[in-house]
Amino acid sequence: MSGALDAARRSAGRATQEGPVTFASPAVDLAQLLGHFGGWQAVGAVLTSYAAAAPLGEGDVATLAPEAVADLAA
C-alpha cells in the first residue's frame, strides 16, 4: 500500500472517530430515493419514517423539492 493511501485511510478513520461526518442534507438522499423509485405518492410516509430515526430540520424539508428537481434535471 502506498504511503499516501495509508495516510488517507488514517485521516478518514480519525474523522469518523471524532463524530458524524455530514457532507450534504439528508434531503438530497431522500429526493433521489423518492425520484428514482417512484415514491412521490408516499412522500409523507417516507418523511415520517425517516424522521423517526433521524429528525429532519426545517431546512431539510424545505430543500426536498428543489433537490428533487435538480436530481431529475441532472
Tell me what you see in this structure.
This protein starts with a helix and ends with a helix. It has a domain at 24-74. The longest helix has 16 residues, at 58-73. It has helices spanning 3-17, 26-36, 43-53, 58-73. The mean pLDDT is 75. The protein has 74 residues and is an all-alpha fold.
> What's the number of extended β-strand segments?
0
Q: Specify the structural class.
A: mainly alpha
Oligomeric category: single chain
Report the major sheet.
Answer: none
What is the overall silhouette?
globular
Order of SSEs: HHHH
Please mark out the parts with pLDDT under 50 across 5 or more consecutive residues, or reply none: none
Q: Counting H and I runs of at least 4 residues, what is the number of helices?
A: 4
Briefly say what this structure is.
By secondary structure, the protein is an all-alpha fold. It is built from 4 helices and no strands. The protein has a domain at 24-74.
Please tag this protein with its features.
74 residues, mainly alpha, 72% helix, globular
Question: How would you summarize the topology of this molecule?
Answer:
Layout: H1 3-17, H2 26-36, H3 43-53, H4 58-73
